[in-house]
UniProtKB/TrEMBL annotation:
Pfam families: Ada_Zn_binding (PF02805), HTH_18 (PF12833). InterPro entries: Ada-like_dom_sf, Ada_DNA_repair_Zn-bd, Homeodomain-like_sf, HTH_AraC, HTH_AraC-typ_CS, Me-P-triester_DNA_alkyl-Trfase, Tscrpt_reg_AraC-type_HTH. It comes from Candidatus Kurthia intestinigallinarum. Keywords: Activator, DNA damage, DNA repair, DNA-binding, Metal-binding, Methyltransferase, Transcription, Transcription regulation, Transferase, Zinc. Residues 86-184 form the HTH araC/xylS-type domain. SMART domains: HTH_ARAC. This is HTH araC/xylS-type domain-containing protein. The keyword Nucleotide-binding does not apply.
Length: 189
């Protein structure tokens, strides 16, 4: 089992909460849910205290599987763009069905939304919205092929808040409605 690191003291937590740059040379903190480590002065969203651990060096954090923050750049080390995009894609593979926004991704992956959007498109050739839509539609097609769920149930399950919007997006990408797709799939069986 991987060492979970040292929990922050009240003083360290106060430095993280207030983004106190005077503590930058004293410690770094890692966030277990994102596996990213930051300086205490990092302007990124405040993590939950129970998900934070303290490190005395970037090497110590990296040895435990943490990566440097893109925003505050601990010890001026930057996570390579391809690794950053891979982390984002891994997250999206398991969270596409939720309300995933550019703002939420930027906060979670410690970068500005404009930088994240630009780098993602440069590295993958598609926008984040296009990628999330493809993930949702792939799962929708799987559900249409393999279940008896209704269209509105599938729409909700894959992250569309409106079945009408789901039908419109599906038709735009697949040149047929979800119902037409489902009927063709059933006829092939």
């Amino acid at each position: 089992m991987m060492n979970e690191g040292v929990r922050p003291t009240d003083e360290q937590w106060a430095a993280i909460e207030t983004n106190d740059k005077t503590y930058n040379e004293r410690f770094l903190y890692g966030v277990h849910s994102t596996k990213i480590c930051c300086k205490p002065s990092c302007p990124s969203r405040l993590p939950h205290r129970e998900k934070v651990c303290i490190f005395h060096s970037l090497e110590e954090a990296m040895a435990q599987g943490f990566r440097p923050c893109k925003r505050c750049r601990p010890e001026n080390v930057i996570l390579p763009n391809d690794e950053w995009v891979a982390l984002i894609n891994a997250f999206l593979e398991t969270h596409y069905m939720y309300d995933v926004t550019l703002d939420k991704l930027a906060a979670r992956f410690h970068g500005s939304k404009f930088h994240l959007s630009r780098i993602y498109k440069e590295m993958t050739g598609e926008t984040l919205t296009q990628h999330i839509t493809q993930l949702r539609l792939t799962e929708a097609k799987r559900l249409l092929n393999n279940t008896t769920l209704r269209i509105h149930e599938i729409a909700a399950r894959v992250g569309f808040h409106s079945s009408a919007y789901f039908v419109a997006v599906f038709k735009q990408y697949e040149q047929q409605t979800p119902k037409q797709y489902q009927l063709k799939a059933r006829n092939k069986r």
